Amino acid sequence: MIGTVVRGVRNPFRSGARAALLVGLLALLLGAFALLMQATEAMQGQVQQLQRTLGTVIELREAGAMGSGFGQGADEGALTATTLMSLRQLPDGGAITRIEPYVYQPQIEAQYANVYAMAIGTAPEARLRALGDLATEEAPVIAGRGFTPQDAQARVAVVGSLYAEQRLGQSPAQALGTMLTLGGAPFEVVGVYGTGNDTADNHVFIPIETFRAVFDSGERLSKAFLTVKSIDQLEAVVQDLQTLPGVDVVTQRETVAATQGHLSSLAGSGRYVAGLLAVLGSVLVTFVLVLSMRARQRELATFKALGASHSELILQVVAEAATLCGLGAVGALLVASVGAHFAESLFGLALSLDAAQLLPMFLFAAALALIGSVYPVVRILGLSPAVAFKESL
């Protein structure tokens, strides 16, 4: 019995080219399948993240102010700290979990290639949101650090990557510790953010209390970002906010809905392609295995003529199939890992292969190998050795 299993394990290596072909097919099939499933899960995660980070965010602006923050509202100063204090008094104000005030100061200097820039005052605990071409964008810190509660009145700054390059003449890492001047006051750069958008990466953030002291902006605000508990409560809160005088209420509902639809469509396409790939790959691998077993018909007939039992021959083929699918599963891991690396490098899509996917991948490979190996062997065993020899000629 053990000798039969050992013989089955060795069989794939008797023909290196054939074994390489079968293992390569299994690796590509399972690796691509796992990669597509990972991509689908990642896109579903992005949809959920959009719901959490943008779908529940409301933006308050001075009435009539441009979305970029330039310009003054018709009723200058209508959006102030007093306005924020009144938010909790609204009927649905209890649904607001976070309030982030922002105040802006244009920093336009024609000598730079990208003249659109802002000095932005924000609370140290607020998320950094840079002003893009059409809307605000999350601004992750890529070097150094963001603000801490201890920075509330400190002269520290977090600058965009383009701001560091053009106005400080430094790379993000080199810009840390650099001094810059805003409103005649010195500031130390403690962090650099990057969004990948030149317009959004051309700003400088400083603590809001320091901003007011340096620029003498008083209680006036340019914007305030509100976060509600859930997207289901968004509409009711928006209706309450629209009763406030001198402010405009803006949400990302349309943007989130459009992005969700796009990502959901991509996820659906990924599942469809993964299913199609599984079907086509299964047929191809099974066909190759059937041909492989047919090519060994005389060998199996010889074993049968020498007295080998049907169970021994089937066990030998099962051991061979298990070896092939095991090698294919290992190859699939390599294919999926390399594909995940390229997906992150090219598209910024972080993919991770869950260990829980290993067992289904192995079972899927085993099913392909068994179907392609056992079926022709059972047929051959039903023939007499003489007929099996004759058919193989």
SSE map:
Blueprint: H1 2-10, H2 16-53, E1 57-62, H3 81-86, E2 96-106, E3 118-122, E4 129-131, E5 136-138, E6 141-144, E7 156-160, H4 161-167, H5 172-175, E8 179-182, E9 185-193, E10 203-207, H6 208-215, E11 223-228, H7 234-241, E12 247-251, H8 253-295, H9 297-305, H10 310-347, H11 358-381, H12 385-392
Parallel strand pairs: 3-10, 7-9
Antiparallel strand pairs: 1-11, 1-12, 2-3, 2-11, 4-5, 6-9, 7-10, 8-9
Structure description:
- With 393 residues, this protein is of the alpha+beta class.
- The protein has 2 domains: 2-49 and 259-392, no CATH class; 57-251, no CATH class.
- The protein contains 12 helices and 12 strands.
- The chain has helices at residues 2-10, 16-53, 81-86, 161-167, 172-175, 208-215, 234-241, 253-295, 297-305, 310-347, 358-381, 385-392; strands at 57-62, 96-106, 118-122, 129-131, 136-138, 141-144, 156-160, 179-182, 185-193, 203-207, 223-228, 247-251.
- The strands form 2 sheets. Strands 1, 2, 3, 6, 7, 8, 9, 10, 11 and 12 form a 10-stranded mixed sheet that branches. Strands 4-5 form a two-stranded antiparallel ribbon.
- Helix 2 (16-53) packs antiparallel against helix 8 (253-295) and helix 2 (16-53) crosses helix 10.
- It is elongated.
- The two termini are 30 Å apart.
